[in-house]
Design brief:
Structural class: alpha/beta
CATH architecture of the largest domain: 2-Layer Sandwich
Shape: elongated
Helix content: 25-40%
Low-confidence stretches: 1-6
Strand content: 5-15%
Mean pLDDT: 87
Largest sheet: 3 strands, parallel
Radius of gyration: 33 Å
CATH class of the largest domain: Alpha Beta
């Protein structure tokens, strides 16, 4: 190859090396991360040339950085562009790109089915800058044409992103056909041979995300680069357990003192014991709140009278007992880890354990409370009724 002829590198090579040369001092191949906020100028003339945009170079990291520069040059190379600019977010990229095309008094047409943050940026932020956006339904391209004005500077739309390239795999699973017989046209999955519509992308997305249980076992239907697990045997996998509570009741005031509480649960495989214990304790406290404190009070005309946390009673740390947690591990066969849910083990059993303990304590006095929460007033009413029976 002649020395003056630049070698044309392939896409895969450029994705690894474009925009970067091996370190001159060490020969290191990987791109270094420059953790610096500022750079040294050779002299005042050099600084003036950089700030005057007469010479390329680094000034501050908030403006440019050698590591960021490699990324920008690499993206430009891969996309066939002259240059690229990296910013911290997608909305920042949109803002810079679109405000370079528009100014106050200009107009744009955008699809009405946008990511929420994008819609807000166009509808609220751009309007404050004097840029008006007309939103149209994207199903018919004619909607965009009709909305164009003399001062329209751009048309904005979003197309479905599918980095896994599995839309036709999902369609084939839904339709029970070979994906080689399918294609995508006008937001629909069509029969490749006849062009007939077989499935809309909206319906495909609904099944993929909300009804994956209807698809073949072990088939991953998400359209993002991620992983989800859906049990196929049955929709939900619950924990189970047993609880007990030790209480003390003051018959003169009706106040309940929680002395100790035990919970033995089975959430399957325990992955993080400390986290599981605290989830259980949190659930137990929530259940105790339902058993003893939490209740909505309404006036005769239906107005809620304890709508603030100043009036709505919730359990406080000083009122809670020691909560002892134990575990029985019987892994579920519905997940590879064998883990089940854990939070409901504390919440569901605690009210029954506490209320039964209270009624056990009241039983020798012919008293029983049947309405939750078991407040001091209700306990005193039950004790008074028990004395009358005696």
């Amino acid at each position: 190859m002649p020395e003056n002829e630049e070698r044309q590198l392939g896409f895969a090579t450029r994705s690894l090396h474009a925009g970067q040369k091996p370190d001159v001092a060490t020969g290191a191949r990987a791109v270094p991360i420059y953790q610096t906020t500022s750079f040294v100028f050779e002299n005042s003339d050099h600084a003036a040339a950089l700030f005057g945009l007469q010479q390329f170079g680094n000034i501050y990291t908030r403006i440019m950085n050698p590591t960021t520069a490699v990324f920008e040059e690499r993206v430009a190379s891969l996309e066939g562009g002259v240059a690229a600019l990296a910013v911290a977010s997608g909305q920042a990229a949109q803002f810079l790109a679109l405000t370079s095309l528009m100014q106050a008094g200009d107009h744009m047409v955008a699809s009405a089915t946008l990511y929420g943050g994008t819609y807000t940026q166009f509808d609220v932020s751009f309007r404050r800058l004097g840029i008006e956006t007309t939103f149209v339904e994207p199903d018919d391209p004619e909607n965009f044409r009709r909305a164009i004005r003399p001062n329209t500077r751009c048309i904005y739309g979003e197309t479905i992103a599918n980095p896994r390239m599995n839309i036709l795999d999902i369609a084939a699973a839904i339709l029970s056909v070979d994906k080689s017989t399918l294609d995508i046209l006008n937001n629909e999955v069509i029969d490749l041979a006849t062009g007939a519509s077989k499935l809309t992308l909206a319906e495909l997305g609904r099944v993929a995300y909300f009804r994956p249980d209807t698809l073949p076992p072990k088939f991953q239907s998400e359209l993002m680069v991620t992983r989800h697990y859906t049990p196929r045997d049955y929709a939900f996998t619950f924990t189970n357990g047993i609880q007990a509570s030790l209480v003390e009741i003051d018959p003169d005031t009706g106040f309940v003192k929680l002395l100790k509480h035990w919970c033995v649960e089975d959430c399957g495989t325990v992955i993080n014991p400390m986290l599981v214990d605290e989830q259980i304790r949190g659930g137990v406290v929530q259940g105790i709140g339902a058993a003893l404190f939490e209740e909505c009070h309404y006036s005769e005309d239906g107005q809620l009278q304890n709508a603030s946390m100043a009036d709505y009673l919730v359990p406080m740390s000083g009122e809670m007992p020691d909560i002892v947690c134990g575990h029985v591990e019987s892994p579920t066969k519905s997940s590879e880890l064998g883990a089940k849910g854990v939070g409901e083990a504390g919440t569901a059993g605690a009210p029954g354990a506490v209320m039964n303990a209270i009624n056990d304590a009241l039983a020798p006095l012919n008293a029983r409370v049947n309405t939750m929460p078991f407040t001091p007033e209700r306990i005193l009413d039950a004790l008074d009724a028990g004395r009358k029976k005696a």
